[in-house]
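Attaching the record inline, Q. Sequence:
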Amino acid sequence: MSATALQLRAALQGDFDREEQAALKRIEGAVQAALFDYAVETQTKWRQDIAQSGLRNAERLTKTIRMRKYKNQGLNPASQVFSNFPIIQRAFEQATVVRSKQGFFLPIPNPDVWPGGRVVRPSRNGAQRSNTIALAEQRFGPLRFVYRPGKASLLVAEVRGSATRPGSFRKASATALRTGNGLVTIVVFFLVKEARLPRMLRGSVIRERAARNADAAVDRLFIRYFEQPSAPLQLTGGSDD
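Structure, as predicted:
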């Protein structure tokens, strides 16, 4: 083989290698961008479902839906969309039945007494470790059980009402409890055997649909990214970790 032929073969071989590497990188970039884009889309839909659910602290709960991206070896990227607070997710996806840990009554705070229907747990003086009933008695005094056949039973307290803030109550003094002057009876808790949470989240539907449509959606996105002009591919979204 002549020197000219050897030089031509080397030149052709070199160009082919460069083109091959450039094409491979472009394919890898399109595959990664397609998969990660689909993961971002799934995460967004899941977070929107929580934001629109009406749950307390829904905005904060949306932040528990996380995403991780793994480039791996280029042609086999992976992505994970998950909740780092799955107990709450499952409870409101499956309409879970809640029961007392002790097997007795489940106390439901009266929203007319507890703002927002939630017992506030102050962190000072170890109150964070106190149970719900103990916290209520610290605030309102001794609770009295009222049984109601066929209805939710009650835990009530004898308290003093505020003259300046209607609907606000405070613990009665020993003298007031003895004489009964100025006392009012309030329902502190409703007692039930169990309570079924409302089905307020559709995360399971979103996850199942995302898994079912993943192949077709990623293929469609891959074609779109691969056919874009030769500018460098921009991977959308960002890993939460």
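Residues 3-94+198-226 form one domain. The chain has a mean pLDDT of 82.

More tomorrow.
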